[in-house]
Amino acid sequence: MWNKSVVTLLLLVVLASCSTKKKMSKVESKPEVVETISKEDSKNAVVQKFLLSNLDFTTFSGKAKSKIDLGKSSYDVTANIRIEKDKRIWISITALLGIEIGRVLITPDSVQILNKFQGEYIAKPFSYLYQYASEDLTFSNVQDLFLANFSTNLLNTTDFEVDQTSVPIQLRGQKNALTYLYLVNQQNRLDSFRLEQPEKGQKLEASYADYSNGGGQLFPMGLELLISGGDMNIKANFNYSRISFNEAIEMPFTISNKYKVIN
After folding, report:
1. Integer angstrom CA distances of residue 37 from 6, 80, 120, 185, 252
2. Which Pfam families match (predicted)?
3. Number of domains in the chain
4. In the predicted model, is pLDDT for residue 18 greater than 50?
5. CATH of the domain at 137
């Protein structure tokens, strides 16, 4: 059996779906420019203003304390997350005493998991994730989930509606088999994001909180994920203690001969 912490974290970053929990973000500071939403704006104009609020970066690095509830079991781990925009997502998971138990490397083409705790390794094409999610899932969706960004591939359709009268603003729509809901705060950043695939009974919700201004970018220092599907129910909290943008990062992922390859 795979170490549950490693498998759970992989599922947390790739599953597509969700249930609604409205949670307001605490905004400590805001960027220099926020595109004001006007009642006269068309829904496409509103979306373009939202997309302009997405983080502009080349690299991201963050360290977060994480508590993962899986059924009746609970795990306390530390996650080091590094992202090279549109290329790679690297995650290192450590348990008590700083002992690394696993690494995950996701690219637009592949998924690799290194289970250091049990000396096992798995490598699959990105399409491997479709058994947990819709084929509409992309690498960018996973990247956006971590950064509280709007996903362009979900919004490049006319099948959505914007409710500017609600607080926060609601943007809901459908992309093939996926339905989604964004709740957007006054800084045009996300309070929460819901993604659901009704045919598979899968739901995922990401709630964002404690926004802080790092290098002129609003980033949520708190992330809560709720996932349900079939007999699986997962809750995870990520509380960042350190983040940085646009700095040189390393993503070591060496496989020694001692690891057993899992097919």
Report:
1. 41, 35, 50, 11, 43
2. DUF4292 (PF14125)
3. 1
4. no
5. 2.50.20.10
Specify whether the CB–CB gap between 131 and 114 falls below 8 A. Answer: no
Rounded CA separation 146/82 (Å): 10
With contact defined as beta carbons under 8 Å apart, do 100 and 114 qualify?
no
Instruction: Tell me the residue type at 141.
Output: N
Cα–Cα distances (Å) from 86 to 10, 57, 58, 139, 150, in that order, read 18, 10, 9, 7, 14
Which residue type does 211 have?
A: Y
pTM of the model: 0.84
> Is residue 152 packed enough to be buried (19+ CB in 10 Å), middle (13-18) or exposed (0-12)?
middle
Q: State the Cα–Cα distance between residues 32 and 3, nearest whole angstrom.
A: 44
Question: Dihedral of the CA atoms 82, 131, 259, 97 (nearest 10)?
Answer: 50
pLDDT band per the 50, 70, 90 thresholds, residue 27: very low
More confident residue, 4 or 253: 253
